[in-house]
Amino acid sequence: MVDHSPVPAVPARVRVSSRTGRWILVTTVLGSSMALLDSTVVNVALPRIGRDLHADLAVLQWTVNAYLVTLAGLILLGGSLGDRYGRRRIFVLGVCWFAAASALCGLAPNATVLVVARALQGIGGALLTPGSLALIQASFHPDDRGRAVGLWSGFGGIGAAIGPFLGGWLVDGPGWRWVFLINVPAALVCAPVALRHVPESSGERGHGRFDVLGAALGAAALALVTYALIQAHSGAVVVASTAAAGVVAAVAFVLVEGRVSDPMMPLEVFSSRQFSAVNAVTLGVYAAFGGFFFLVALQLQVVSGYSPLRAGIALLPTTVLMLLFSARSGALSDRIGPRLPLTVGPVLCAAAMLLMLRVGPHAHYLTEVLPAVVVMGAGMVTLVAPLTASVLASVDSSRAGLASGINNAAARAAGLLAVAALPLVSGMGPQSYRSAEAFDAAFRRAMPVCAALLVAAAGLAFATVRRPTPGCRRPQCRTHGFVTAPPLEDGRDGPAPRAR
């Protein structure tokens, strides 16, 4: 019988140079990399998945979005579970859950099982993603905590850089199922090492009720609206009913968060105009990014004739640029303030998306694909670190972890809604990805829409973002290579607060 009693908090005394410190870093990097790699490699596998499972475009959309619905809806709750029942315990549970769901994805006999398994994967990701950073914050001595977080985020960035190459190689080699099955041996290493070498810890405020109703309503709202957008081309009455139910669930979520005693997303945090504005910028920016990376992976394979491996490698410069220069971008933002980077960065990304209009049949990589990818990377380098810093600076330091969690969830929700809506807006039919001509025409309609979202986000940032007050909280994850969500920050020097 599993003991669910609260775990006493322990003082953080581990040093990075110690044997235990090295094991903690190995464990947390390996665990978080499972979720990180899965998010970056699946897009490359989508055409092969569709062909092998005889699936239409809606299934490919759900293959991406089923994971994001549960991850975005439950990631805040996942942090609070770790604080209550033990961060290591919930982290290991998340790793094992994620691996079991990954095995189900890899063995899925049909599209329905694959989509359900992807939703289960998202639950595992919601448990292990906040847990990896929380373990570092809770375990290491305060003098070593910044270095430990830096190593964790840096190695995570390297994992993100490897992801597209690894995904393409697996799809071209043993097959797309191994994109998921590779998580199983990783978990078989990660979980035992965590149980043997990582000390257990819990939050100082591991009490009170969990906001299960809020989490359920939030996930339901995302799922229902996503379904309505993906199936809108059918024009069925059930689509309109689902859309209405999604709106009702979203309204109910807001009402519940305003009334329960321990909300996972306290509404008063939005009383900060700066926090609300930065999250609005986040929605626009990451909606564009989510749509871009979903469609470009298909465009390169369906229209340009790239293999999965070539398509994965084609996007690699974006991640490498972020890995190399995100820390310097953060330092520059500290000196000049976030307003200019948050204005210029989205504009550069918008220009990159318009450059992608040059990528058509038999596109030459050096002259047509690479320029757009490099400009995209430059834009992301410019804006990601200042975006995170602005989120942390816009609230009291005691709520910085919560603010980062909300911002991360908002980015993922924006991405999944874009993946659902862009094919509808651009006129993609259920079988468009099987026709190079049809998909290319829809892609050329979708990229200007993504660019418009980015320009709108840039204008909002210019109008609303202000220089933070001196002495406000700064990000600890200075190195970043994850292109589909901002880095998840704990946001304080002491043990990790509850991400409710």
Q: How many extended strands?
A: 0
Structural class: mainly alpha
Approximate shape: globular
Helix content: over 70%
Give the overall pLDDT as a whole number. 87
Largest sheet composition: none
Keywords: Antibiotic resistance, Cell membrane, Membrane, Transmembrane, Transmembrane helix, Transport
Membrane topology: Multi-pass membrane protein
InterPro entries: EmrB-like (IPR004638), MFS (IPR011701), MFS_dom (IPR020846), MFS_trans_sf (IPR036259)
Transmembrane segments: 23-46, 58-78, 90-109, 115-136, 148-170, 176-198, 210-230, 236-256, 277-297, 309-327, 339-357, 369-393, 405-426, 446-465
What does this structure look like?
The protein has 500 residues and is an all-alpha fold. The protein folds into 3 domains: 18-205, MFS general substrate transporter like domains (Growth Hormone, Chain: A, Up-down Bundle); 211-263; 269-491, MFS general substrate transporter like domains (Growth Hormone, Chain: A). The chain has helices at residues 19-52, 57-85, 87-107, 111-139, 142-172, 177-181, 183-197, 212-230, 237-259, 273-303, 308-314, 316-336, 339-355, 365-393, 400-425, 436-464. The longest helix has 34 residues, at 19-52. The protein is globular, with a radius of gyration of 21 Å. 60% of the residues are buried. It is found in: Cell membrane. Residues 24-469 form the Major facilitator superfamily (MFS) profile domain. It comes from Streptomyces thermoviolaceus subsp. thermoviolaceus. Keywords: Antibiotic resistance, Cell membrane, Membrane, Transmembrane, Transmembrane helix, Transport. Its main location: membrane.
